[in-house]
Amino acid sequence: MYFYPAASTPGCTKEACDFRDNLAELNEAGLDVVGISPDKPEKLAKFRDKEGLTFPLLSDPDRSVLEAWGAYGEKTMYGKTVQGVIRSTFVVDEKGKIEVAQYNIRATGHVAKLRRDLSV
């Protein structure tokens, strides 16, 4: 499961397309991918269709899920402290236990690093 700030922005598009391009290998390793952002479902549907994303994108407009997972809060952007989505990824096992929690990740190269970390 990964949390991202906004559909159709350059970094979020790169990250989503990296997950899409690596989805077969992740699935073969027993990993499903789900993306969550505060975007409305209509925006997520356009993003999914435009980028050919083949995994679920979930909408959390009130940010309750983001906050529960620690993926929304204070962060630094361009040298300023702001409130927003903290780009994060979690690997959750079949029993719901969090195996990996990564916060403040970079969109570019993140999926490759995740695959290395998980030996996928």
Automatic annotation (TrEMBL):
One GO cellular component, as annotated: cytoplasm
EC number: 1.11.1.24
Database matches in Gene3D superfamilies: Glutaredoxin (3.40.30.10)
Pfam family of the protein (one): AhpC-TSA
GO biological process assignments: cell redox homeostasis; cellular response to oxidative stress
GO MF annotation list: thioredoxin peroxidase activity
Domain Thioredoxin: 1-120
Reactions mediated catalytically: a hydroperoxide + [thioredoxin]-dithiol = an alcohol + [thioredoxin]-disulfide + H2O
Domain of life of the organism encoding this protein: Bacteria
Listed InterPro entries: AhpC/TSA (IPR000866), Peroxiredoxin_BCP/PrxQ (IPR050924), Thioredoxin-like_sf (IPR036249), Thioredoxin_domain (IPR013766)
Keywords for this protein: Antioxidant, Disulfide bond, Oxidoreductase, Peroxidase, Redox-active center
Residues spanning the signal sequence: none
Annotated function: Thiol-specific peroxidase that catalyzes the reduction of hydrogen peroxide and organic hydroperoxides to water and alcohols, respectively. Plays a role in cell protection against oxidative stress by detoxifying peroxides and as sensor of hydrogen peroxide-mediated signaling events.
Family named by the database record: Belongs to the peroxiredoxin family. BCP/PrxQ subfamily.
Assembly information from the UniProt record: Monomer.
Protein name: thioredoxin-dependent peroxiredoxin
Source organism of the structure: Mycolicibacterium psychrotolerans
